[in-house]
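Continuing the batch. This is chain 6 of the set; chains 1 through 5 are on the previous pages. Same settings as before, nothing changed between runs. Recording input and output for traceability.
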Amino acid sequence: MSSRLDDELSRLVSAGVLRQYQAESIRDAADAEIDAALADPGRSRPQQTAQAPEPAKPKPPPVEGHPNALVEVLGYIGGALLLGAVALLTLANWGEMGRAARVSTGTTAAVVLLGAAVVLALLRRREQLSSALASLGCCVAGFATFVAIEGETGRVAGVAVALALAAVGLWWLEGSSLLVATFGILAVGVLVITADVLTPDTGSAANSAGIAGTGFIIVAFVFAMLGLVRDQVTSWSLAGAAMFSSSICWLVQERGEIMALAVGTAGPAALLVAYGRTRRSAYAVVGCAILLVIWPTSLYQLTDNMAGVAIGLVVASGVLLLAVLMLSRRRSNE
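Output for chain 6:
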């Protein structure tokens, strides 16, 4: 048998299938196996062990069925119809409604929306629908608080109540719709605090715009932090939207074009860096949209020359595209 093995290995080496050291390794392994078999005749042969039955593969867990989409859609429609009915009733009869009727209408709608959200959350059903109903309920509750108190104090108290409810919802339900509602409440809060608290009666609208721009920067920082513990894509996209709002405010501020450019560039730059790391298209869309609006507007206000702005944007675009081509070529060479 050894002679037949040597002949077969020599043929394979001559044909180029095996190298000489590989043939020698096979020959040594065969000789060692023969010696071991002669020393221990009762030892099982490798052919027998190779035929041992394979262990049974674990069965994959059963796939859970998707929730009934019709129930979700009906819940959204029901919440939207209730909110629309409250809005129509309030707008059509605002002058004729007394204070008690106004307060009771808003309070009833808020209780219904928040109650439905709480029930769904306790039953652990329809988490997205529960978050959406809670988002609407927070906003309606804030409006009802404003109607009940009225005036500057009512506006501040309404924002505080809506924000507190939204914070509880974010902590409990963790829904993306609550992030959107929180952004809207904070945006209204920035405007309310700017107009009713921080801006003196003799102050100009331009000075108020700068204060509001600073407030939106704080909102962007809040959502950047929320992205570390909640839906990151939604939170950071909303942070970019807050930076865009801040840029718009700085454009209204006297001699605020440079600040608008700085804020309108910092926000998209952070989003584009996040896109490069995570490949989430929402970051790129929001970042590019902000740049597309803020840069032409700010440059036009600085130079008052539309043609110069267009030429500058073309040059900047060419530089960026050339940099992309050079970086892509370097990466391909590496």
